What does this fold into?
Amino acid sequence: MLTIDGIVIRERSVGEQDKFIDVLTAKDGVIEISVKGAKKINSKSGSSTQLFAYSRFCVQLRKQRYYLNSAEPVCIFYNLRTDIKKLSLAAFFADIVNYTIDRQNEYGEVLRLMLNTLHYLENDKRPLEFLKSLFELRLCAELGMMPAIVGCSECGEFEPEKVVFRISDGDFCCKECCEASAEESFSNILSDKAMLHAVRHIVLTDFSKLYNFRVSERIMKNLSEYTERYLINHLGCNFRTLDFYRSL
Ligand SMILES: [Zn+2]
It folds into this structure.
């Protein structure tokens, strides 16, 4: 018998009574667990195997498949379920994780990012767009798709006043350098050094301080556009859960 801590990021019904759940873990990436009798009324494993439940799963491994023996909920993020906007944003986060994380690899930092972001989300501790941007960009960084943010890609300037963020190149340059190279691309975003500070904070700051920063409304708009397009561009995938979140 194995004990695994993780958060349910997808569930699928099988037949009348059973289901499969995909669980994001720290040490084994995303694993699939078969849950027998999940639909029975008063099923003991009910709340601990529902979507977004972070639980301690007791499982058996047979023929490379995990079977649930029992589960204890650690945190079920109940308040996510009371607000469709929050729930749909959480579903988008789960969708990206499902798309990017493979099995049998260590993803402790991704699990931590997911749990912390859902905690802030369910308790209204930060605005939704703020959490969305933070999650999108930090996840890219954790997965090795960090933007190049040390200095202007053309002249090396560390902190230009006006900054052009180049999405597909994954870097930035000063407005002057960008004008000099006559580059005007749809995928560029013009902003300033306050946005550069925010981007550097999200990709570089230690987890303990990750959520502790503020941005003005103007920078939030730039940041929001930047992180969403950066994620979509670098993953090369569109998400229906994102379309749904945007439609609300
Ligand atoms: Zn420059």
Summary: The CA atoms of residues 36 and 93 lie 27 Å apart.
